[in-house]
Amino acid sequence: MSLNSQDINRAREALQTIPPDIDRDTWVRVGMGAHAAGLTLDDFDAWSAGAGNYNARVVRDVWRSIKPNKGIGPGTLYQMAAEHGWRIGGASRPPRVKPPARPPKPVRSDMSADAVWARCEPATAEHPYVRSKAAQGVPLDGLRVVPEGDPLVIAGQSMAGALVVPLLRPDGSISSLQCVTVGETAERLRAADKTTKLSLPGHSQEGWFTVGDMVPGGDVFVCEGIGTAWACWRATGEPAVVCFGWGRVRVVSQALRQQDAAARLVLCPDVGKEAEAFKIAREVRARVAAMPDGWEQNADVGDFALQEGADALAELLAGAKPPEQRFKLLGSSDLKALPPMVWRIREVLPAEGLAAVYGPSRSGKSFLLLDAACAIAEGRDWFGHRVKAAPVVYVALEGQAGFRVRVRAWEQANGRALPERLRLVLEPFKLVEASDVRDLAAAILELGPGSVTILDTLNRAAPGLDENASADMGCMIQAAAALQRLIGGLVVLVHHTGKDPSKGLRGHSSLIGALDGSLEVARDGERRTWISDKVKEGPDGKVHAFRLETVNLGFDEDGEPISSCVVQADTSAEEIKRVKLPQGGNQRIVYQALGPMFRASLKFGQAGAPSYRPCLELEAAITAAAAHMTCASDRRLERSREAITGLVSRGVMGHRDGWIWLV
Fold it and tell me: N or C end of the chain: smaller count of CB under 10 Å?
């Protein structure tokens, strides 16, 4: 049976409901149920660490001894959790009230942490555990030994002669004691390495023990046990914190970070616990000193020091690595190593991302885009820009009937069939319908990777949504981005300008911010231009003139002529001069406002202007344009004058002796 993350989380919640301070047989049954439910050793160890008699090595030995299909399944875990108030779904209920089988035994006064600690003797370098770890010379201040004949018994075994490590709260008080036994006692407890660590029953596990002295902002090694802490201290001379089991590393690291925000914490996990260590390190801003490859499960830096020496361990600890962060902070060398910009139409449209082509109605957007689509499909230059070939899908959502005629016109004008890699979609498509996006992407991917998809128009692709509303525009952008991620290429949105063309794209301003490129198409009488309005990683503001040439296609069944148009670049020198366009919102307002006045003017060739150029009096033009300004009324004349001055300086208009004209 495979388990999903929901099953695992449910089992983990159930486990945490059961108190870990239970008798050994029940504790083992909980472990078997947790094992059957798909939980890991780390889950079981973290839960067991809350018990007063927690022993990390015993936890591991019991977990490894559990065999599946031995009569205890996940139901045992859930049943025991239910008795303590857990129920499926995560909601808790009051636990069943039943008389305790045995009232909890209070801690005898002579068995309290303070009482036992007071009876103990100072530790020396001759203690068997110190010798077993080759830890001569380590600071033993704060460690003691249970004297011979002492009545302390844990798990049925005398602790006489055990090394005692105190768990110290931040205020210095003792919360519990860990007794480290070696030799005969450990052998009786069946510890694999003849060493076992037992905590005082009935005591909390609050706090930690530190080998060496911590200084603000200094290095601190975070270890499971005293042996690994000694190894780190001997190798570096820096303090090391004993957490008393892996299950307490997270809470101790959090407390250390809260205590000293500048400390350089280094976690030292056993082999097999590196993944969890990096998770904790990400939470507390720590590094991880992982063991080299090839060491057996649960080997630690203490084992490494015994085999390789203190100098080798110092090098290992110095190479502690930070966890991979979600946000990468890039420097100069990182930026230089980034791949270069990949263009579909060089310095016009990128190969990947979101783009828009926009302009007023009847400006020629669709004709221009059909021509661009053919150029991309064929991989030929377009308006002097280099093109990298790719499949193109043109989704025509308005004027579908006219596309058949437009394609005929293009083929007749160019003397060849429509490119094979260009395909059209004339069926209805809703950008905000996930199924439509998914199905369209599947069809597009059949043409190959890196395609260009044109949605003409955005308004028709998102019926019923208000493009002026932030939320609705956000839905359109997210849907377009989802389509782009699926096809891995470029999605081009065809859109309109609003009532005021100088304000650019119609609708909420979040659209322009989401784009990687945009082209503005403009029309002034018969003169048409497109300008690179936004070019990611490239120069914007380049203006290109084009014209629509009529192509006659014969007659229909009623004898009426059939015609359409094709795009032709207008490269005449005079036209290139004329297609200089304004920059900035106010210049565009003035340019649009004065256009009809120039066309209606009967004053030609004034003050040295070309004889065929209509002219306007400067002051009259300033006053007329000011009426269209959107700023405060007392600033409109000033802004109008500044805008006309800017148009003259850019060469869009000529000026002399109080007269202006279009260049």
Answer: N
